[in-house]
Structure formats: C-alpha cells, structure tokens
Write a structure and sequence with these properties.
This protein is of the alpha/beta class and 161 residues long. Helix content is 17%, strand content 22%. The protein has three helices and nine strands. The longest helix is centred in the middle third of the chain and has 10 residues. The protein is globular.
C-alpha cells in the first residue's frame, strides 16, 4: 500500500506517530518542564518519562507534504479546559517540528469522544490508528475510507505493505 496513492492521510498520534516510554504513556501524561533530546526524536519530562518519535515518520510526513497530500490528525489526547494551542499533542508536534506537515485538519478530542464524530474524508482517504475500535468506528461511518492498524507494520515508509 503506497501512501502516495491517497489524496488524504488521517493519523492518530499516540502510539501511531510517537511511542511512550511505558505502557499507556501519552502526550497528555508528560509533566512540565520537558525537553527535546536525541536529534529532536525524543521529548523527556521532569520524571524522565518520554515520547519517542517513531522511525521513519518524519520522512514520510515530509514526502507526503511535498506531494501536496492532505495530512490530518485526530487524537483523543485532549485535556479539558485547555486551549487548542496548549493541548499536549499540539505542543509535542511543535517540539518534534512536524506540526507544519499537518496541513489539513488538526483535531484534538477528549477520551470520551468518538473520532467518527469529527472525521471527514477528502478524495481517496486512509486512516491509520493503533486502536482497533477506532478503525472499526471509522469504517462503519465511512465505508470508502481505507483503515490501517499501525500495529500491522514495523516502520514508517511511503510503501507500507
């Protein structure tokens, strides 16, 4: 499956674009202050917990961007009573220097929300997430969207399968 064959790519963030230092460690789990290490591929918080950018994701996003693809994200990592620009996923995308690649829709939802409630397709669309329930929900409401579980491939590259 070649990502360049799609008009629109919609990604989850936690455990799809980056991984946590331990199970169930998400962007919203980071405690201030935090810093970037390892060539901008790791954000470390004050307790030495971290988020690690997945191998190849920066290069894939850059290639999709250069090819004028619509790149979006939908994450359930939002905090209540926090402005969009201050949401942990937005801060992480900025720290990793990849926010600019998300040139279409940038959606930060709360864990009780449904991704399908805000999802929209544009042309031939693929949705990539690590949570099977999210993939099933999108497929149910958007049957023309290609859904791919992030756990089904090892490394990010333009040609995934």
């Amino acid at each position: 499956m070649n990502l360049l064959d799609f008009d629109s790519i919609v990604l989850d963030l936690d455990y799809t674009v980056w991984d946590g230092s331990k199970e169930n460690f998400w962007a919203k789990s980071l405690e201030h202050p935090y810093r970037v290490k390892s060539s901008k591929k790791r954000i470390i918080d004050r307790n030495n917990n971290f988020l690690q950018l997945q191998d190849g994701i920066h290069e894939v996003l850059e290639e999709l961007y250069k090819n004028n693809k619509k790149i979006s994200f939908i994450t359930l990592g939002g905090l209540l009573d926090t402005e969009h620009k201050n949401q942990p996923p937005i801060r992480c995308l900025k720290k990793f220097k990849i926010l600019k690649f998300f040139n279409y829709k940038r959606s930060v939802l709360y864990k009780t929300d449904s991704k399908s409630s805000i999802f929209s397709e544009y042309g031939k669309t693929i949705f990539i997430d690590d949570v099977e329930d999210n993939l099933i929900d999108i497929k149910k409401h958007f049957p023309n969207v290609e859904c791919l579980n992030r756990n089904r491939f090892k490394k990010w590259q333009i040609n995934l399968c």
